[in-house]
Design goal:
single chain; alpha/beta; seven-stranded parallel β-sheet; seven-stranded mixed β-barrel; 31 strands; 18% helix; globular
């Protein structure tokens, strides 16, 4: 397990020449009474510098040593560049060790040093010393050497939960959510499952049970308490609620000593929820004969959760659809605003695509659920490693601006292929969509070339054809590879079942890039435009194509949803006994409880943080969006990392009154003015200004710098560009974003530009924090340089 705590190294350290390190100071301990020496255990201390396996250059004249940055077929520790970089790490390690010794006031006895997988050391520390070491600049993480505890094999380390579990303080069960109860509004419980047994190590007993389960099919008990007949999950509602509860707060289960035991692949031996010591209040709200969830049942459960705040309910999960009219009194999101006002953090699933005959929506774009700005709407990313495809670049013959190093996602069944360069690119202007009904391709048309094909159909009047049909037609015409480019705004990935398994096929999701390539090939589809591909075989955190996303429609166009993403695909957790006690499930329903569990951990460690401050910490420290299929409309601020959120040096709050005033139907406050860690304006003409206020969570004074990380067509001015804060003090910043509308493609004028305001604590006492930005100029303000934008 690793306690991933990120800091920036001291700039002066990076500049130290090799061989010029001063001797480390020595501290005498001879006067210390042996009885006062605290108990110490081995900690792993990781430094900010990359290990030799990851170093990609940038330190003085030292060349890169990472395999991907060199021509070496295998990593060679004896290569001259590796030995030089390791020599540099030996110097920085000595400096870090000296700094740690200075902070502790004693000599540090180092038992291990690490230079390849990472840069770091192992040393004996007390828990209090470990906490002090974690605050030393240049330290990335401090962790004990206890075995990893894994849930769904991967997700606690992926979302930073293990980092929080291993913190020196508060320690023990508190690090795992003890004292917090999570309200799960879903399809019912499995009271007999070991994931919800009373674990004494977490403080649970018959008098203080892990699981409290009720049915809200009726709510006529005292105070409107739910008193339906059966709180257990049944066949109609399936294992959904059991799985959600287990993901958020299931006990730590050791497979070898658990009955029934989870079936885990080698080498995994343990299963756990994100907050395994948190209690679970299961409210069965899906009581309809077909398993659906009545609004009356959900409203009763929300009321019961609010009534249970005094009993420890501080987090609520809602992996159920809705929330599209969040200020409407009949919408559960409006009731969630009351829960937030009562002190409950709310996480909800952003929703999934469904077939038309199941009620839809089939298209994920613009259909995101749970749009209430007080609700954390959660998208679904892959937890497992998935094949990527590679990076795609275009030359004509020189490199084409805007068409370099594009993310090319391979089809679900097509091969990953191999690197190529100088390969001719061709498009058939007579049939850019490549469908059989519109003529297919002439024999040999793509002989020896990479075929470029448009997603969908040639015209709105013709039926689109599937990816397998497009790819098959191109292969039959001699294509050596196929690239399918997007015809609309929004990410997509290809189900290529039925396509030839012999030729690689890739998708380019960015419509701006797709339109640029189509126009280029429309003029020069003679083989003089060429492509290169650099294969990259692995990627985690890819957005699921089924995850509903923004942009938010109608009166909420200036609100970014979803807020964050979390792992939600192929999640293994508790289930009904009739379903085998454990099972894999996928969807935003599985992503949301990861966030609920993360929030439970934060609420124990930072009990004074409000629900909105917890929400802001998770958003501002999320792993930033990357790649064409992973933009702000897909994942909001990014994929959560609670290990970073726990250390957020700034948080943001908003009031119940302001949320009410931001009602787009008659409210007095523009939704853009809400104090959220996201900013959106769809009518910059050509600039727009946002105001945000942050509060320091640090125990000492802090200094902050503010920057802007953005796409090429956005610029920003932030005032002030730097500021200092006393503990608990607040600072208001003003961000003016300008749009170069000429940078937007004329065929996708509604596509926003994305960026982020980045706040950096100059001494490294907080991870970098970011506020997401999404802006665009209105259509009638797009500069066309004389071209018709229609």
């Amino acid at each position: 397990m690793r306690n991933s705590i990120r800091f920036k190294p001291l700039a002066a350290w990076v500049a130290v020449p090799l061989g010029l390190l001063a001797a480390s100071p020595t501290f005498s301990q001879s006067a210390v009474d042996a009885t006062s020496v605290p108990v110490r255990k081995t900690y792993l201390i990781e430094f900010e510098e990359d290990g030799a396996l990851q170093y990609e250059g940038g330190v003085g004249s030292l060349p890169a040593t990472a395999r991907g940055a060199t021509d070496a077929a295998v990593f060679d520790a004896q290569a001259a560049e590796v030995r030089a970089y390791v020599g540099y790490l030996e110097n920085t390690t000595a400096m870090h060790t000296a700094a740690i010794g200075s902070a502790l006031g004693r000599d540090l006895k180092v038992s291990h040093r690490y230079f390849y997988t990472h840069s770091g050391i192992a040393a004996e520390l007390s828990d209090a010393e470990a906490a002090a070491v974690a605050r030393v600049p240049g330290i990335r993480s401090v962790s004990t050497r206890e075995p990893d505890v894994l849930a769904t094999y991967r997700t606690p380390p992926l979302v930073g939960a293990q980092t929080v579990w291993n913190l020196p303080a508060p320690g023990g069960a508190a690090n795992r959510g003890a004292g917090i109860r999570i309200a799960i509004l879903d399809s019912g419980a499995n009271s007999a499952h070991p994931s919800f047994a009373n674990d004494a190590s977490c403080g649970f007993s018959a008098a203080n049970p892990k699981l409290i389960a009720v049915s809200c099919a009726s709510a006529t008990g005292p105070g409107g308490a739910c008193n339906g007949p059966d709180p257990e999950a049944d066949a109609a509602s399936s294992s959904h609620g059991v799985h959600v509860a287990g993901t958020a707060a299931g006990n730590r289960l050791i497979a070898a000593s658990t009955t029934p035991a989870p079936t885990l692949p080698v080498p995994y031996t343990e299963l756990s929820g994100i907050a395994p010591c948190a209690g679970v209040n299961s409210y069965k709200v899906c009581n309809e004969p077909d398993g659906r969830c009545a609004s009356a049942d959900s409203a009763a459960a929300i009321n019961m959760a609010i009534a249970s705040v005094g009993d420890g309910v501080r987090v609520l999960n809602f992996s159920i659809s809705g929330g599209t009219t969040p200020w409407n009194a009949g919408d559960n999101d409006r009731r969630f605003l009351d829960a937030v006002d009562a002190g409950i953090f709310v996480a909800a699933a952003s929703g999934n695509t469904r077939p038309a005959n199941a009620g839809g929506p089939e298209n994920p774009v613009g259909n995101v659920n749970h749009r209430g700005p007080w609700v954390m709407s959660v998208a679904n990313t892959y937890a497992t490693v998935r094949p990527l495809g590679g990076r795609f670049s275009v030359g004509a013959p020189d490199a084409v601006d805007g068409l370099q190093d594009l993310y090319a996602l391979k089809g679900s069944t097509t091969p990953a292929g191999s690197d190529f360069s100088g390969q001719p690119l061709r498009l058939d202007p007579a049939n850019p969509a490549g469908c059989t009904d519109t003529g297919g391709f002439a024999p040999g048309y793509f002989a020896g070339a990479v075929a470029v094909i448009r997603r969908g159909s040639n015209t709105p009047a013709t039926e689109p054809c599937g990816f397998a049909e497009k790819i098959s037609n191109a292969v039959d015409a001699g294509a050596v590879a196929v690239v399918i480019v997007n015809n609309q705004y929004g990410a997509f990935s290809m189900n290529t079942s039925g396509a030839p398994a012999t030729v690689p096929a890739y998708s380019l999701a960015d419509q701006v890039q797709a339109d640029t390539l189509i126009r280029l090939l429309g003029d020069r589809s003679d083989g003089t435009v060429t492509a290169s591909l650099r294969v990259e075989t692995e990627l985690t955190d890819m957005l699921s194509p089924d995850s509903l996303r923004g942009p938010t429609p109608g009166t909420l166009v200036d609100l970014t949803k979803p807020d964050v993403a979390a792992p939600g695909t192929d999640i293994y957790a508790a289930a009904r006994t009739a379903d085998g006690s454990y099972r894999y499930l996928s969807g935003t329903s599985m992503a949301s409880p990861h966030v609920a569990g993360a929030a439970a951990l934060l609420r124990v460690i930072h009990p004074a943080w409000t629900p909105m401050e917890v929400k802001s910490a998770l958003q501002m420290t999320a792993v930033r969006p990357m790649g064409a299929w992973w933009d702000g409309d897909g994942v909001g601020n990014g994929r959560i990392d609670v290990g970073l959120a726990e250390r957020a040096g700034l948080v943001m709050d908003e009031t119940h009154a302001n949320f009410l005033a931001a009602n787009p139907n008659g409210g007095t406050l523009d939704v853009k003015a809400l104090n959220l860690p996201s900013m959106r304006n769809t009518a910059c003409t050509p600039s727009c200004t946002f105001t945000r206020t942050v509060r320091s969570t640090l125990a000492t004074a802090s200094d902050w710098s503010v920057g802007f990380d953005t796409a090429a067509d956005l610029t920003a001015t932030v005032t002030p560009a730097s500021f200092s804060l006393a503990p608990g003090a607040a600072q208001t910043v003003q961000i003016t974003v300008s749009v170069d509308a000429r940078g937007r493609t004329l065929t996708a004028p509604n596509m926003p530009g994305f960026g982020a305001v980045v706040l950096t604590e100059t001494a490294g006492r907080s991870p970098p924090l970011h506020l997401s930005v999404a802006v665009r100029a209105p259509r009638d303000h797009i500069f066309t340089d004389g071209l018709d934008p229609k």
